[in-house]
Write a structure and sequence with these properties.
This protein is mainly α. The chain has two domains: about 180 residues, no CATH class; about 30 residues, no CATH class. Helix content is about 70%, strand content about 0%. The termini are far apart. About 5% of the residues have low confidence.
Amino acid sequence: MSLVKFVCAIITRSLFFLVSLIGVWRVKTVKNDNMYWLLTVLYLPLVVEMIITLTRRKGKDYKWFSPAILFFLISIIPSIWFLELHHQENKASDPQCRKLDSWDNVKSILATNGTMGEETLKHLERMLTSVCPNDWILGLHQVLLILLILGKWLLPLGGGVTRDQLSQLLLIFVGTAADILEFTSETLSDVKERNNKLVYVILAVWTWSMLQFPFHLSVVTSQPQNSDEPKGGDGCCNLVLSRHSTDIWNIVESLFIQDGPFLVLNQILLVRQFLSQDSSRSKCVDKYL
């Protein structure tokens, strides 16, 4: 059983490395600068964590915190920042590309000129670079969130975490990932003009929301019910807190890490859009008057 946990720990971190490396390669490709390979330096914390966890903890994760997921986020989030900012700055000048919105388009990309027998890497690179930048970024967002859920499922459980708690945590992760993906895809697509400050704010809120994945206090802090607890006074308060600690932590995380910032930013974007439309109407009226 320990061998299975050891292998799962290695496979999970290998997937983290692979996806992060794809992100760095994409940044280097769109920027056309080999200096961006230096982003791989961010892999060092994940390498150190892997060595320590495999040697001292036999691959087991921690109870309230997953350093592997945190270091994976540190290694890939900067690449997504670079890609998002580059795409927002170069929307008008993006070359002809192929969208991944249908199976026919996917087959046409796979059927690009060249044979897999000769110059395989160059053929693969041409095939990947022909995909639209927006589809590349959306794909990285989706793979990142899927891998966070899959990685948490594959990582060996920390001490004190039960299978039921892990199942509850994975369900929370699925709902959270869907909300985050919807937020980033819709808000960034609404940025029509070149506005780096607005993109910075959206990406900052997105980065802040991703920090809830390494922590799972909302699940493992829950206590089993105890019928011997006192019924009144402080005992009653303690009983309520122990029974509903999971719900309390969920509300706190949702309010301060995800739903709260998302709501504030969406309201700001709505007000900003309303003011811009009102300004355009005023200019139109002045033109005809």
